Amino acid sequence: MPLSEQKISSDTLFNGKVRCAQHEDGYRFSVDAVLLGHFVAPSHGSSVLDLGSGCGVISLILAHRHASVTITCLELQLNLLTLIQRNIITNNLEKRLFAQQGDVASIHKVVEPESFNLVVCNPPYGEVAAGRLSQGSEQAIARHEVRGKVVDFIKAAAFAVKNKGRVAIVFPAPRLSFLISALKNVRLEPKRMQMVHSYPEAPGKLVLVEAVKNGGEELLVVPPLFIYNAPSGEYTPGMAAMFS
Predict the structure, then answer these.
(1) What number does CATH give the domain 27-243?
(2) What is the pTM of this model?
């Protein structure tokens, strides 16, 4: 559907300090993006690349929390790229946030090699299931491996990040072994990891991993994060703080 025909909602983060336009019926960011935006801490003055940015929410979070960084949002879908540009203007981030259309599978066409201190990525890791989603829809491309495989995003991250630079990814916890193998295959060494659980008694749902290009083998596993309190179903204080 053309952008002019899509209904747009305006959502907020940080008690209204950050506004994020999203398509009401298209791809909408989830808790994955919020978690990743708070997991990483860019160094002062860092250049950051956000691969497959969607509406740009991870970049908006990073820009709000780290005032010295500059961020490039790389997004394949033109409808979502237009949303990123709108969100940049709405949040007065024209000097620090930049939108670039491009395909991670041919990242060399739009990004210089080893040009970023940090790369963040919430890749489309859902399996392609026939009949569940139109494979050309905005949601399918953003959430499922329709136009780009997870390994394409990891290879793109390794291409774009500087030597000893960092790459941070949010990923399904049950596929952690696949993620670690894929990272190591392109010389991205996992250095910090956090497991995310829906509830304290539930198995890990997501995992946050930060890797260093050509780093050593030491891995820091930080305390787990719980999204909801049981039995109320409300956000835990730590999770609620990420939105406020």
Answers:
(1) 3.40.50.150
(2) 0.88
